[in-house]
Amino acid sequence: MIRRLRIPAPEDFTAPSHSPQVTARLGLWLGVAFGLCFATGVLSHYIQHPPGWFTWPTRPVSLYRITQGVHVLSGVAAIPLLLAKLWSVYPRLFVRPPVRQPIRLSAHALERISVLVLVCAAFFELVTGLFNVAQSYPWGFFFPTAHYAVAWLVAGAILLHVAVKLPIARAALSTPLRRRRAVPGADDPNSSERRAFLRTSAGVAGIAVLATAGVTVPWLRRVSPLAWRSASGPQGVPINRTAAAARITVPPDWRLEIVWPGGRETLSLAELVALPHRTAELPIACVEGWSVSANWTGVPVVELLRWAGAPTGRPVRITSLETDGLYAASTLPAAHARDPLTLLALRINGEQLSPDHGYPCRLIAPSRPGVLQTKWVARLEVLR
Ligand SMILES: Nc1nc2c(c(=O)[nH]1)N[C@H]1C(S)=C(S)[C@@H](COP(=O)(O)O)O[C@H]1N2
Ligand SMILES: [Mo]
Q1: Which of 46, 106, 295, 356 is the most buried if burial means most Cβ atoms within 10 Å?
Q2: Ligand 2 centre from 29 Cα, in Å?
Q3: Where exactly are the transmembrane stretches of this chain (predicted)?
């Protein structure tokens, strides 16, 4: 049996922007923004904590820069879209009574609870994400873990919400915005207001993206007043953690240590500098969405391992002089460890690395999150 759904008429609500045609379209756009944000966020999580079955390509060198840029910018776009969607449904959020059958937990009540979970979780993701890009952590929990866990809650709540709303959303999406009234030639006066509200919502989302996209899109830097990172910084690249903050002191007798199952080799800075170098243009792409390209010069890790007589084609653990930081070490997966563009960099944009950029040497590898580009490297360990 096919049930005919009654689309609430615009008069059911106080303003045309509260019509289901508006809500459904905003829902669709929001679904695209959240979908992109979720997919790129899960990717970023897997790159940083790879399960056994996961591999991430080393090419194009900017792949992570792109996926993480999409993550942060789709999140930025979702903020005005979520506010607009809440505005478009808010009369219905306060329908009385909130629970139709007070004794039994009705489907209606469950649906209302799932919407509450969805709204709270979505706000949690967008707000914590915003604070994260602003490098402000005014809370007690560990941001990546909480942000990742709640993302699954949002995804599940969205799927449930879409499943519940599919019939009404489909009907509303197939109802043209420009609906003709019974009187021929007379346009529904509310339809232009509905379209204006949708245009404004899309416009605000677009402006929010343009105003911030300069953090990662070089040619947008000049039109992005709200970009939270510019291309400037010592030697043309911003610094997240300075050598002073990480309490780095490079010992005068610094030697790079290379260890592998059954072997060990060390070399001085002078010996490292004397090895064949390679220069590559590679981006630093922070998980916070900002990214900047630079010309890095250094010794390819694979060549260094060959020079030491260590096995290649295995994952390599990179450890910093930093002792207690969260990002004091990282692991190069086998694909990155054997890539000739994975460098132990000694120079940036033609100059010796400044202390803040990781002097005496830092890791820089293609298509890799900034947090894994370990600075102030002290040790390479070939894993089994
Ligand atoms: N040892 C160490 N390396 C590190 C970090 C750190 O805190 N300690 N921060 C990482 C992060 S989060 C990023 S985005 C890049 C930032 O690079 P930059 O500060 O050198 O520009 O370095 C990475 N390397
Ligand atoms: Mo970062």
Answers
A1: 356
A2: 29
A3: 26-48, 68-88, 109-131, 151-173, 202-220
Q: What is the CATH number of domain 10-178+189-223?
A: 1.20.950
What is the rounded CA–CA span in Å between residue 23 and residue 84?
9
Rg (CA), the chain: 26
Confidence (pTM): 0.92
Q: pLDDT tens-digit profile of 248-286?
A: 999 999 999 999 999 999 999 999 999 999 999 999 999
For residue 375 the two structure tokens come to 């600075």
Does ligand 1 come within 6 angstroms of the Cβ of 8? Answer: no
Residues 326-364 pLDDT 10s: 999 999 999 999 999 999 999 999 999 999 999 999 999
Judged by its nearest atom, the ligand closest to the C-alpha of residue 44 is 2
The CATH classification number of 235-382 equals 3.90.420.10
Q: Where are the domains of the chain?
A: 10-178+189-223, 235-382
Task: Give yes or no for a contact between 299 and 354, defined as CB atoms under 8 angstroms apart.
Answer: no
Do 379 and 257 touch, CB atoms closer than 8 A? yes
